[in-house]
Amino acid sequence: MTQHHDDHGHSLAEDMPLMEAMIGRRRALRWFAGAGTAALVAGCGGNGSDASSASVAVVTGTTPTPTPTATTATPTPSATTGTCVKDASETNGPYPADGTNTSSGSTSNALTASGIVRSDIRSSFLGTSTTTATGVQLKLTLTVVDVNSSCAALAGYAVYIWCCDRNGLYSLYTAAAESYLRGIQVTDANGQVTFTLIFPGCYSGRWPHIHVEVFSSLATATSGRYASLVGQLAMPAAACSTVYADTATYPSSARNFAQISLSSDNVFGDNSTAQIAQQTPTLTGNIAAGYIGTATIGLAR
Asked: Fewer CB atoms near the end CB (10 Å): N or C, the chain?
């Protein structure tokens, strides 16, 4: 296909003689002063690119800064900004306990069980077991935002998370007698929920991760079929290397982690760079004190 390019190379000096000949010097100057702004705007908009064709849209949210009045002597703080993308939809895996499959444990739908709404999810809460999952502590805060509304916080949303234990086993399934490392929280006015769990182990064939399902309300969080988002969080590589070096606590994770990469992972491998960045929690802390993590979850409402 032949591409057509508009010729925008003429300067004012080149065009002026023609303008003078057509409408006179004075009229040409008056016309250019009035239309110059419109011409500049038109010239800046025709590069032929379409931002909507990108596979992932990055949205920037801005909190407006109040304009100082004439009597205000204190400098106005800078506006705060943030970016978000729509989280990739991922598989909920074979161990969701959200009512979408069967399990070998006490229930296949932990979302309807009494006690599932909790912040500290390290202990089992179903049946007779009260076992607490051991490992490096992780306190994780998730912020749920609307990518179609300048990354505005979404309050009142139910967030269900679950992950494997330090041996790579999932409660209610491969650790059938346990129900630890599963829980729901409801987002506050800032769109945030906080969970206390452990740093998940790494099992063969998968990058270390935490599963996430987001529902529009606690009332709809009774079946995984009603989730607004089924996603996963990718654990940061540096923290994985540090945590898994303790082979007494995480006996097989270091070996499994050495055999996987984000690009080869069958879940994260086809995600965009922006999605991976958002799906990877930011962590501070250490093994002895535990880690504190934050991540954003972007929904397109």
From this structure: N
